[in-house]
Amino acid sequence: MVQIYGREGMGCIYLSEGKFKESENQAKQGIELAEKLGEKGWKWEFHLNLAYIFKKSGNPEKALKECNDAWNIAVEEEWSSLKQDILYFKGLAYLGMKSISEARRVADELKELIEKGLNRKRIRFYHHLMGMIELERENFSKAIENFQKALALYHPQYIEYPLYPRDDHALFMEPLARAYYKSGNIERAREEYEKIISLSVGRIYYGDIYAKSF
Length: 214
Known about the structure:
It is a single chain. By secondary structure, this protein is mainly α. The chain contains 11 helices and no strands. The radius of gyration is 16 Å and the shape is globular. The relative contact order is 0.09.
């Protein structure tokens, strides 16, 4: 297990340095290690890490494949809440492919799955994905509204690392700053980017966002 934590930690460090290929290699080695140890939860985690890496490095088709691989694990293990995470990243992958209609279809599927679950605050993933869709459409006011709804439902940062569930604060906060910037509200954009810079554990998994926020 220590080696698994090490692979994920190294992947996070490489992301903060903008070394996407090196981070990708750590995730792939993590999948192999998790497979040997029978740790399907960690295998799922590394597939989503790869989905994020591929999306950010301009390979949304590969990101979508990683989402599908993670989905197969969640179905096999009957992990409903993890399916929600996958659908969120799947929607982002479709946006990377400029397929807004598919992203909206996935958002609707995500909303339905969350409403059937026990944790209704996870509707934040739906609001955030809708914000990303509106941001892609350049409907900045609607994007900002959805991002604010999502962040209002987000829990405070945890106080320890390694963490589970993971803290995605940087991932959730950056698009709001970007929406303010693109809408011409430079002061609010600056404020939101400074909030990202002040994060502690909420930035660990998204060091690339943290670094660029400066």
